[in-house]
Amino acid sequence: MADDHAVLEVKYCVQPWVEEVNRNIESYKKMIADWNKVGEVMKEVGIQFGYHNHNFEFATLDGIVPYYDIFMPEMDPNLITMELDMYWATKAGQDPVEMFNKYPGRFQLFHFKDMSQKSEPFYEVIKDDITSVGSGLIDFKRIWDARETAGMKYMFVEDDNQGMGKPFEAIGISIDNLTSKILV
After folding, report:
1. 166 vs 93, more confident
2. Residues 6+ apart with CB under 8 A from 101
């Protein structure tokens, strides 16, 4: 797989998901040990391996918060970068800027999507309030301003709900908000 990705000249290969059956401490530790090996193989062919979060990694399991107590300490920062999904981190009650300050340089990939409803932190993957970037509640300007601390190299903008049936209008709103309010 690494060789095939290298032929395509990709810069990143990202682990995007953990199946629910594997969301336990023992599985997380085994996966991360395996991902460190994957990161090493990818690095040998010039590709950066990464991990994309959701909200479930922040749920407390047996007194442990996997993202902070397993993922960040056990993922080799020289082999694995984080693609921080701002929506899911925020849904789990996390502050992305505080995360950057705690783990500087570990977040090469920013994943921007916004939310329209404030709620108590939750850890189920429910995405019924995704909205255009800059139209919701997340302070993307503050996050953008902390990009150097984070180590950000690339940003992705997404609307999982595809603009509630109006994908082109929704992406237009995100682009307008990014260029007029966030990236300035």
Report:
1. 93
2. 146, 149
Over residues 89-95, mean pLDDT: 98
Angle at 80 between CA 75 and CA 83, to 5 degrees: 110
**Mean predicted confidence (pLDDT) in 138-164:** 95
Residue spans of the domains in the chain: they are 2-182
Q: Say which CATH architecture domain 2-182 belongs to.
A: Alpha-Beta Barrel (3.20)
SS (H, E, C) the chain: CHHHHHHCCCCEEEECCCCHHHCCHHHHHHHHHHHHHHHHHHHHCCCEEEEECCCHHHCCECCECHHHHHHHHHCCCCCEEEEEEHHHHHHCCCCHHHHHHHCCCCCCEEEECEECCCCCCCCCCCCCCEECCCCCCCCHHHHHHCHHHHCCCEEEECCCCHHHHCHHHHHHHHHHHHHHHHCC
Cα–chain-centroid distance for residue 169? 24
Q: State the pLDDT confidence band at 36, using cuts at 50, 70 and 90.
A: very high
